[in-house]
């Protein structure tokens, strides 16, 4: 039987003991063995703290985000084999989708957050700069850096993939190396995904390690700077948290534990309403998805006392209709528990619940293509607690399977009180169309819940469901649920980051944070900063504008254009008792006039205004005042660009407007999209002429079979096709892929060297030569390039077919020619 290998200190290592046999939850057949005996855990932790930390922490947040995306794409291409293994854990296809592709989705989400919101530096400036001296020469701010240690992540058996990836999404993005310790049960699936993560070659050395089996004494070696993330029972979690190595070394500890989550049916949601039907569907889903083995599953069903019978009957019918059995069968809607050991534990908890509650539904389902003897199958079980304020077992005991308990309430006060008797839950849901009931109940129960999910007819179509944690929202809960806070968007990174206050002068803080601080030295140059590409802009690049004197006509005209006739701008007789001496210029006029002073009218790398932040007006500007603007590059944000957008980054510019007395009247931050340098040549005819001048009959090619003249005539043919001479009659790219190919014209990726022309046979000559020699071919090519420029000026809406990219307009043809020319000029070493 295959023994799962562990991945530690950069190599795959097999345990030396007998290990733990792992069984197919459906058939009972043995699948693999997990074994960690003989592993040197102390060496593994030290390897992570040194090699892993040095490699990960030196990367920027932006680059780590790109790393997550590449890993997720690599795994997505191989998902089929993960599903095949997932079925052996008892999971249906729908269960497996949540686990497998839900895990990949977490990586994609955090990659997107990083590329939109995190800096292209290894540290992260957190919050605003604080002015802590009268004259602004002494400032303070905070930066976040990766905690200098290793993260040990102990995961539960119910989500072998998502459980690993949702923790790694934040730790890897934060720059902290991790050791993953999945539950042995289902670890053969975790192992397969982990192997591909390593084989992808995307992760730096030491970033990840894997321990498949018992954790041994791994936690004895944790130290200050390390962290432990635990998902499992509250009892085990408390024991781990109190270990001397954890409690005594200030090791960060995050726990996600037991959770007796509830769902409340609103007083308004009577049978026949959409909310009643949604409630029954949601409860059934949460009882049967993953066979109830979810930390977010509904364990307590809180229902108006007069609707208990209706809910019991409707839910029983819905559960009767749920097909249970082999996950490989299309009929199956609920699979098995993960194994016999887990089955026995759920039976034990069910027997405890029976001592105080009535079992009102115990499904007698016939299994689909499976049997109860070999598989770990359990039918759904529904209890009734008729006195939920007196009988407490259903508030204390969680049967981690398809088991839930009905309980009645009288009013919103009682509903919230019952919800809180779970003593801390990951999620509670309210299903109602009564906004007053929802509002009153939700805030009263919020203190004991990590998430509150409200469902009704208005959001049902787009709702993600009671049991679905989302990467952008916190996953965790107080009290019994462990007090943990995983994911939650960028907040999830804070657990792995050290927050440090930085104090110093504006110049010092600018140098440390790479964000311009007011009062720091400005860098003036003759070149307008808006004429610089993203890579060339430096924090501190500045412009001092000419002055502009504000007139009465400016104020009147702006009032008329904007329709802003606020009295302070238009009525001098109404200013008594105000802060104004006379009619004042509009704040937005000052900002607009400032833009008029600092923008560059000449076309350049600045593509568009992207936004405005933190605009404040400090002093009034009156007719006769003269304003001057200081524009300074404050911060650069790298930016992932998709689709038909020019590769660019965001530059934040500090705008300081002063009057003739050098008093600051307005401060704002504007954001601009700034293009990045293109690696492709300019189509300017003179530029191309200089390049081809170096091409001779004997110039060798770095790849391919073209001669120099064939290459020039090939490019000329492409130019002629873009003029419709001749009009290409066919595109060889399938219609469903055409948009993707056209989008690729906009990115900065070069054409592949080995790209086969789809319109030519492999042994066919590219073109029969039509010019008498290379020099004649060059001249004809340049003449037609000049024609191309003129043609699209005269016919800006023209479109012509390309063999690969389909019908292209002026912009697309220019992008295509830039890439194509660059490709072949590099082929012959001309650029």
UniProtKB/TrEMBL annotation:
Keywords: Oxidoreductase. SUPFAM superfamilies: ALDH-like, Thioesterase/thiol ester dehydrase-isomerase. Residues 460-484 are annotated as: Disordered. It comes from Chryseobacterium vrystaatense. This is Phenylacetic acid degradation protein PaaN. Residues 12-499 form the Aldehyde dehydrogenase domain. It comes from the Bacteria. NCBIfam families: PaaN-DH, PRK11903.1. Residues 539-639 form the MaoC-like domain.
């Amino acid at each position: 039987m295959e023994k799962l290998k562990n991945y530690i200190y950069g190599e795959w290592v097999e345990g030396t003991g007998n290990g733990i046999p792992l069984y197919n939850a459906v058939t009972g057949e043995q699948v693999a063995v997990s074994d960690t005996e003989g592993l040197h855990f102390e060496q593994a932790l030290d390897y992570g703290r040194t090699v892993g930390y040095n490699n990960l922490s030196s990367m920027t947040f932006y680059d780590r985000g790109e790393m997550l995306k590449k890993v997720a794409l690599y795994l997505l291409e191989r998902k089929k084999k993960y599903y095949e293994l997932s079925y052996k854990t008892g999971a249906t296809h729908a269960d497996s989708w949540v686990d497998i592709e839900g895990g990949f989705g977490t990586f994609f989400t955090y990659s997107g957050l990083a590329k939109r919101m995190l800096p292209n530096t290894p540290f992260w400036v957190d919050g605003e700069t604080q002015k802590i001296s009268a004259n602004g020469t002494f400032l303070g701010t905070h930066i976040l850096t990766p905690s200098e240690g290793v993260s040990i992540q102990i995961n539960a058996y119910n989500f072998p993939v998502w459980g690993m990836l949702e923790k790694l999404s934040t730790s890897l993005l934060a720059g902290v190396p991790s050791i993953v310790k999945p539950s042995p049960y289902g670890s053969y699936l975790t192992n397969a995904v982990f192997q591909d993560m390593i084989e992808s070659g995307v992760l730096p050395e030491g970033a990840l390690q894997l321990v498949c089996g018992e954790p041994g004494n791994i936690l004895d070696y944790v130290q200050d700077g390390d962290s432990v993330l635990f998902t499992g029972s509250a009892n085990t979690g408390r024991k781990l948290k109190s270990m001397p190595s954890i409690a005594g070394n200030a090791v960060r500890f995050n726990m996600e534990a037991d959770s007796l989550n509830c769902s409340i049916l609103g007083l308004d949601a009577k049978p026949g309403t959409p909310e009643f039907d949604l409630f029954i569907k949601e409860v059934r889903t949460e009882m049967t998805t993953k066979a109830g083995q979810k930390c977010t599953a509904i364990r307590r069903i809180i229902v108006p006392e007069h609707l208990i019978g209706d809910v019991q009957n409707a839910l029983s019918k819905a559960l009767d209709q749920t097909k249970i059995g082999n996950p490989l069968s299309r009929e199956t809607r609920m699979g098995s528990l993960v194994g016999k050991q887990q089955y026995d534990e759920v039976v034990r908890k069910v027997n405890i619940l029976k001592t105080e509650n009535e079992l009102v539904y115990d499904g007698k389902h016939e299994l689909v293509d499976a049997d109860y003897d070999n598989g770990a199958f359990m039918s759904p079980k529904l209890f009734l607690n008729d006195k939920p304020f007196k009988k407490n077992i259903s508030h204390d005991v969680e049967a981690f399977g398809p088991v839930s308990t009905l309980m009645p309430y009288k009013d919103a006060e009682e509903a919230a009180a019952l919800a809180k008797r779970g003593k801390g839950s990951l999620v509670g849901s309210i299903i109602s169309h009564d906004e007053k009931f929802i509002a009153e109940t939700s805030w009263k129960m919020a203190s004991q819940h990590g998430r509150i999910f409200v469902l009704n007819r208005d959001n049902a179509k787009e709702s993600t469901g009671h049991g679905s944690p989302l990467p952008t929202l916190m996953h965790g809960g107080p009290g019994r649920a462990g007090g943990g806070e995983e994911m939650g968007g960028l907040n999830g990174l804070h657990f792995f980051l050290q927050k440090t206050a930085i104090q110093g002068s504006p110049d010092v803080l600018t140098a440390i944070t790479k964000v311009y601080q007011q009062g720091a030295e400005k860098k003036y140059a003759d070149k307008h900063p808006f004429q610089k590409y993203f890579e060339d802009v430096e924090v501190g690049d500045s412009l001092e504008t000419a002055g502009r004197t504000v007139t009465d006509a400016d104020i009147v005209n702006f009032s008329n254009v904007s329709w802003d006739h606020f009295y302070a701008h238009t009525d001098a007789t109404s200013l008594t008792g105000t802060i104004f001496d006379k009619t004042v210029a509009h704040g937005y006029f000052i900002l607009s006039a400032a833009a008029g002073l600092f923008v560059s009218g000449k076309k350049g790398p600045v593509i568009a205004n992207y936004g405005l932040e933190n605009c404040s007006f400090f002093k009034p500007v009156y007719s006769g005042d003269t304003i001057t603007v200081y524009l300074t590059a404050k911060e650069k944000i790298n930016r992932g660009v998709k689709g038909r957008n020019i590769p660019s980054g965001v530059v934040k510019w500090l705008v300081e407007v002063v009057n003739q007395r050098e008093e600051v009247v307005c401060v704002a931050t504007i954001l601009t999209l700034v293009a990045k340098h293109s690696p492709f040549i300019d189509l300017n005819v003179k530029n191309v002429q200089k390049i081809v001048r170096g091409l001779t009959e004997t110039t060798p090619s770095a790849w391919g079979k073209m001669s120099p003249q064939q290459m020039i005539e090939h490019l000329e043919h492409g130019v002629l096709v873009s003029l419709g001479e001749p009009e290409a009659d066919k595109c060889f790219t399938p219609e469903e892929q055409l948009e993707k190919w056209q989008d690729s014209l906009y990115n900065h990726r070069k054409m592949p060297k080995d790209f086969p022309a789809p319109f030519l046979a492999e042994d066919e000559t590219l073109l029969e030569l039509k010019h008498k020699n290379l020099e004649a071919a060059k001249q004809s090519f340049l003449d037609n390039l000049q024609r191309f420029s003129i043609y699209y000026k005269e016919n800006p809406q023209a479109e012509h077919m390309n063999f690969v990219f389909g019908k292209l307009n002026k912009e697309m043809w220019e992008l295509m020619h830039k890439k194509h020319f660059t490709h072949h000029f590099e082929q012959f070493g001309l650029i």
